[in-house]
Amino acid sequence: xxxxxxxxxxLVAVAAVAAASALLVKGxxxxxxxxxxxxxxxxxxxxxxxxxxxxxxxSQRLAxxxxxxxxxxDGERLLDVGSGTGSLALAIAAQTRRREVVGIxxxxxxxxxxxxxxxxxxxxxxxxxxxxxxFPNASFNRCLAxxxxxxxxxxxxxxxxxxxxxxxGGWVAASVWDYNEGMTMLRLxxxxxxxxxxxxxxxxxxxxxxxxxxxxxxxxxxSGFKDVEETELVIDLxxxxxxxxWAPFLESQGPAGVFVGSLTKDQREKLKNQLRNDVLAxxxxxxxxxxxxxxxxxGRVPTxxxx
Length: 307
Ligand SMILES: C[S@@+](CC[C@H](N)C(=O)[O-])C[C@H]1O[C@@H](n2cnc3c(N)ncnc32)[C@H](O)[C@@H]1O
What we know:
This protein is α/β, with parallel strands linked by helices.
């Protein structure tokens, strides 16, 4: 699976949108500009049904555990940052009686899809950017971001904004998959792709920002939050067959899907065969379960303005 240098450069931008921004800051990826990142974000997060089949079904599974960890309670006004197809807002609604949720996401397609999933007048989705939130200071009790922080080009600016719009004493919480190890669905995928072509290591999501133990809590502390706590959330991903695992990768969702979309038919077949061997590990095809770990963090906005 040999990729030419030009294609590789383009895929690096696609495969790690937020990671690329971090690397750009460090000057490690010259030639990849923000335009390429924006195209990548649009490419990855524009088709809601496909996203649901690839990742939405698992974020739905993760959302209730995250809501519990974030400490959501009745009577709150909450901001769902990077609300995507709406799974977190719906999980909040399912676990509370009185609440108001506003979800913001840059993807118009996702906002429209999420809006159609509920008729609850106290849940609203709108187009928005975490780096420039269109809300007054201290307008939410709690601010939550599920599987989003690693995709935001300037996560620190998003932290400043989430802190600004959350009331003093309120909580800001986030969760990011452990792309390095514990998100087995993606780890198996990238290990197989790199085994076939070591050059693909540059695209591997294992270095996604904030995907390792301690990285989210470090960001929270650096951003001036109090009572910062980090934990792991582990869920089961149940697949009915190898095809159920593989088919969503063909839909160009997320960095892995965009990578598969760049391969020739022959390269795709090789990757599929390698993955079948790795995933089934000698067992006959049929239902199987993979573990998925995400890191979650929560922290309180200081009541004294952060002094
Ligand atoms: C992996 S999806 C997660 C969506 C949803 N929270 C979920 O758990 O299913 C990442 C989301 O981050 C959104 N996103 C990317 N950049 C963003 C930004 N600057 N501000 C807010 N959301 C952003 C994407 O549009 C996408 O919906």
